[in-house]
């Protein structure tokens, strides 16, 4: 599987947009202590770039859920890891790599509602709204993309390609 030279979103385009998202988020949370809750593993790269573009105090923790077993969602969501930090009264921003059917993020939102948070919002780098099976929308979205399977910048196909700096379309098992 060879990555082609023409990514869907180049690293520069992503970096520019992450900066814009960080500016907006920084304004919205100017008077609050923010806790970024990164959804492992896909949001690892986006989340670590985002946190470094945010001024001031930012706490980070992780949550892990799995709903995905290949190019098509399996439908079930399981929680594999929950945050270690106390979440009561915290202003939590859930950080997702991509919204597809919306099942994972909506499952996590429902789970987090049990923690008496100060507030809960959702940021996603990518959104595939044409695939949505519920009413979920993100509070902050990096890019809206067509219904195609993408890898790179933290997103994998069977644990491969996360390390690519740009986002590429995966077509018939090959990175385009
Ligand atoms: P959802 O629950 O919204 O259907 O799926 C969300 C999860 O499925 C994402 O966090 C991601 O792990 C995976 N996923 C959905 N679409 C894609 C895609 O185009 N590429 C990759 N690599 N993962 C995807
Ligand atoms: Mg994911």
Describe the structure.
- Helix 1 (11-28) packs across helix 2.
- The longest helix has 18 residues, at 11-28.
- The protein is of the alpha/beta class and 176 residues long.
- Strands 3-2-1-4-5-6 form a six-stranded mixed β-sheet, with helices on both faces.
- The protein contains three helices and nine strands; from the N terminus they run αβαβββαβββββ.
- It has helices spanning 11-28, 44-53, 103-112, and strands spanning 34-40, 58-68, 73-81, 91-99, 119-127, 140-144, 150-151, 168-171, 174-175.
- Residues 42, 67-68, 73, 96-104, 149-151, 155-157 line the site of guanosine-5'-monophosphate (5GP).
The biggest beta sheet is recorded as: 6 strands, mixed
Q: Which regions contain 5 or more consecutive residues with pLDDT less than 50?
A: none
**Strand and helix order:** HEHEEEHEEEEE
- Count the E strands: 9
Biggest sheet: strand arrangement: 3-2-1-4-5-6
Number of helices: 3
Strand content: 25-35%
Could you give the distance between the termini?
9 Å
The radius of gyration is 16 Å
What's the layout of helices and strands?
Blueprint: H1 11-28, E1 34-40, H2 44-53, E2 58-68, E3 73-81, E4 91-99, H3 103-112, E5 119-127, E6 140-144, E7 150-151, E8 168-171, E9 174-175
Parallel strand pairs: 1-2, 1-4, 4-5, 5-6
Antiparallel strand pairs: 2-3, 7-8, 8-9
Helix pairs in contact: 1-2
The structure holds guanosine-5'-monophosphate (5GP) and magnesium ion (MG).
């Amino acid at each position: 599987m060879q990555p082609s030279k023409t990514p869907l979103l180049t690293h520069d385009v992503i970096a520019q947009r992450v900066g814009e998202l960080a500016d907006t988020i920084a304004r919205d949370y100017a008077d609050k202590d923010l806790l970024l809750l990164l959804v492992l593993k896909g949001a690892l790269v986006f989340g670590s770039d985002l946190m470094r573009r945010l001024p001031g105090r930012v706490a980070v923790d992780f949550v892990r859920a799995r709903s995905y077993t290949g190019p098509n969602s399996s439908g079930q969501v399981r929680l594999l890891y929950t945050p270690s930090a106390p979440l009561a009264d915290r202003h939590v921003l859930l950080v997702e790599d991509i919204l597809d059917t919306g099942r994972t993020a909506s499952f996590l939102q429902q789970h987090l509602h049990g923690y008496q948070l100060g507030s809960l919002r959702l940021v996603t780098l990518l959104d595939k709204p044409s695939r949505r099976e519920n009413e979920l929308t993100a509070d902050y979205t990096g890019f809206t993309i067509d219904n195609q399977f993408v890898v790179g910048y933290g997103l994998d196909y069977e644990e491969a390609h996360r390390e690519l700096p740009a986002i590429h379309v995966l077509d018939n098992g090959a990175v385009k």
